[in-house]
């Protein structure tokens, strides 16, 4: 198992905590949380160790054929809400991020709470999530400090 501080530093530099809102015809957008790390394929072993340490996620191979000189990449992706709420969020709560990515993580956590309380199924809840998603990070630091 990797040292948790190594994982924190790695994710501070290479990780992504994202909130997605997918159009859903005339209904409310579908809200999803994604935690991802994408690296060149020759770094796949470290991605597998991070996956094992977190105890979740899938690794995908990505081909960038349209870019001649790009090497294939691999991506660790966690999109299952149960894994996010019970593994990813608790891990980074116990081992806090140090760089500005912690602001994205805080938005990610607030959105997870809204999803847990089923607010993402209401117009008002989706509007809260959209506001969080597009909130200026500097404003977020002041508002959530």
Question: Your description of this structure?
Answer:
It is a single chain. The chain has helices at 4-14, 44-54, 81-94, 101-116, 123-134, 137-144, and strands at residues 15-24, 27-40, 58-62, 73-78. It is of the alpha+beta class. The chain is globular and about 45 Å long. It starts with a helix and ends with a helix.
Keywords:
4-stranded antiparallel β-sheet; single chain; 24% strand; 145 residues; Endonuclease I-creI; alpha+beta; disordered C terminus
So, CATH architecture? Roll
Strand content: 15-25%
Cα distance, first to last residue?
32 Å
What summary fits the major beta sheet? 4 strands, antiparallel
Query: Mean of the pLDDT scores?
Result: 90
Strand order of the largest sheet: 1-2-4-3
Number of domains: 1
Give a short overview.
The chain is α+β, with helices and mostly antiparallel strands and 145 residues long. The chain has helices at residues 4-14, 44-54, 81-94, 101-116, 123-134, 137-144; strands spanning 15-24, 27-40, 58-62, 73-78.
List the helices and strands and how they pair.
Layout: H1 4-14, E1 15-24, E2 27-40, H2 44-54, E3 58-62, E4 73-78, H3 81-94, H4 101-116, H5 123-134, H6 137-144
Antiparallel strand pairs: 1-2, 2-4, 3-4
Helix pairs in contact: 4-5, 4-6
């Amino acid at each position: 198992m990797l040292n948790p501080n190594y994982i924190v530093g790695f994710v501070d530099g290479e990780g992504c905590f994202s909130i997605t809102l997918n159009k859903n015809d005339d209904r409310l957008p579908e809200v999803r949380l994604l935690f991802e790390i994408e690296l060149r394929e020759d770094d796949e072993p470290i991605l597998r160790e991070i996956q094992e340490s977190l105890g979740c996620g899938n690794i995908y191979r990505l081909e960038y054929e349209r870019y001649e000189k790009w090497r294939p990449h691999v991506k660790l992706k966690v999109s299952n809400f149960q894994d996010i709420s019970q593994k990813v969020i608790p891990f980074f709560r116990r081992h806090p991020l140090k760089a500005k990515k912690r602001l994205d993580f805080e938005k990610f956590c607030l959105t997870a709470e809204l999803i847990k309380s089923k607010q993402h199924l209401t117009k008002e809840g989706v509007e809260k999530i959209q506001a969080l998603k597009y909130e200026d990070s500097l404003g977020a630091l002041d508002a959530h400090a």
